[in-house]
Amino acid sequence: MPLDAQAQLAPKVPRIGFLATNAPAAYPELVEAFRQGLRDLGYVEGQNIGIEYRWAEGRVERFADFAAELVGRKVDVIVATSSPLALAARNATKTIPIVFVTAADPLGQGLVAAIARPGGNVTGFSLLAPEIVARQLQILKDAVPTASRVAVLSNPANSYTALLIKETETAARSLRIRLQPLAVRGTADLDGAFSVISKERPSALFVLFDPVLLGHRMRITEFANKNRLPAMYPHKEYAEAGGLIAYGVDLRDNFRRAATSVAKILKGAKAGDLPVEQPTKFDLVINLKTAKALGLTIPQSLLQRADQVIE
To answer: How far apart are CA 288 and CA 296, in angstroms?
Structure first.
């Protein structure tokens, strides 16, 4: 059979564009969760599915260019690991389906027209981040009752950060906690924030959800522990890296479930018809080993509420 005839008969292998905020080494377990989700549905990378990766390595200026690259490559669906990346992808195409994996406020950010029926070419998974920062701050206060001044790490480059800060300030007033906001857009800002914290010596550290900060979780947790600073983090990956306490959505579950949305779209579903999925469970993870190193006694009542205790 002529080669061109064979090519015409060969089945088309769907291609996924994967837009990631950080370098692959920043969260290999999350990428693997997505791949495993695909395998569970019968899609094996390199066999009957192709994935084109774009790693922004924390550089926001790369988002638009990488999104445009994937659109130019005519991928079948784009997976965006964060809402800023999803916005970049949506600005690049109104036709290729987009699935965001983590979005703090998809409705408020204008990613979707409605949670139940997003419309357009975008759907994905919400973190409900604005609603849980009050709980995170309360848990930190339960663990460290003497905490009166708390340093807050956030990334103002993300559009939802202002909302997270507002919710944090409201919670802090009710808990009689003074906040010390520190903006971190990248590595240089992180060094500056560490310098301020070392000088000002706050009672505790509060890290807001942000993909760039997640990529620096090893440095952040190491700094906090070295400076004997109790800290609350937004995801268990921080606690696994040595952080004291984490409370938030299971990111691996989000990445795994994102594969399900991708599979539905590849089978003909429209992204705009797939409801944005919201979390129903939040994990409380306490690193007891770190608590002991900090000389901190975690109340038994808090330990009993934990979904996981690292010893």
So the answer is: 9
Q: For the domain with range 3-127+251-273, which CATH number is right: 3.60.15.10, 3.40.605.10, 3.40.50.2300, 3.40.50.1220?
A: 3.40.50.2300
Using alpha carbons, select from 132, 63, 49 the residue that is nearest to residue 100.
Answer: 63
Rounded distance between C-alpha atoms, residue 260 and residue 91, angstroms: 24
pTM of the model: 0.89
Extract the tokens encoding 167: 């919710």
Q: What is the largest CA-CA distance in the chain?
A: 78
Digit-coded pLDDT (tens) for 178-223: 999 999 987 789 999 999 999 999 999 999 999 889 999 999 999 9
Q: Which amino acid appears at position 273 of this protein?
A: D
- Per domain, the residue ranges of the chain are 3-127+251-273, 129-248+283-310
Exposure of 167 in the CB half-sphere (CA atoms within 13 A)? 22
Task: Name the token pair of 1.
Answer: 């059979």
List of residues 6+ apart from 298 with CB closer than 8 A: 143, 286, 288, 291
